[in-house]
Amino acid sequence: MNRPTPAEHDRELRNFLMREVRIEDLADGGVRIVGHAAVFDQLSEDLGGFRERIKRGAFAKSLRRDDVRALFNHDENFVLARNRAGTLTLEEDDVGLKSIIHAPPTTWARDLAVSMRRGDVNQMSFAFAVSKEGQQWRKRDDGLWERSVSEVSRLYDVSIVAFPAYPQATAAVRALEDLKAHRWDQLTPDQRRRERTEGALARSGHGDADPYMRRAEARLRQIEDEIAAGSTDDYRRRLRRIISDT
Q: Has residue 20 been placed in a domain?
């Protein structure tokens, strides 16, 4: 029985430069393409307020159960191979998600292989979904958030891509916002005050300077006491003054 397909808004994309790719001509006129669609423990670029690492073992369950295609540019009209057809082999190795694609003896697939040999096309991507349990979040010392993906709940496809699409991380951003909201609700007033101060200092470029932190916290407590009965606008003006003075 096929598992239900997650909603489209849970689908995410990630892109990786192929460090090493092997292309071999086959006796049937097709082409074998070997590369990595994902790299383990490599810190990503900023994905919209957070960075990410794919952990070793993240694909283990999905490789045993999912019906995965190899595509060109994530386009279902250009199918290179499929694991259930025996033309796509996916496995985890020391580097990441290794993909062995037995591409068909079609004109467009052979043309793609020529472009890859020339270096015109040299990136791979994968489309996936992650459950709440398959991701762990932490706030780093520099104030940024980092997500570790320990288990992919669904692997849709691996793709050779000509232009890396902007990483689709909407589902992950939603998960981060939910985490922030829950975490904020658990903080004490003093902890919330420190969070606001750290954020202001990070934006001002002084986020790693303890003297600035202590000074700003002391000033913030003083101002909050002074304007407890004041207006919101007054509070904001004074808070901006604190930030500009630190």
A: yes
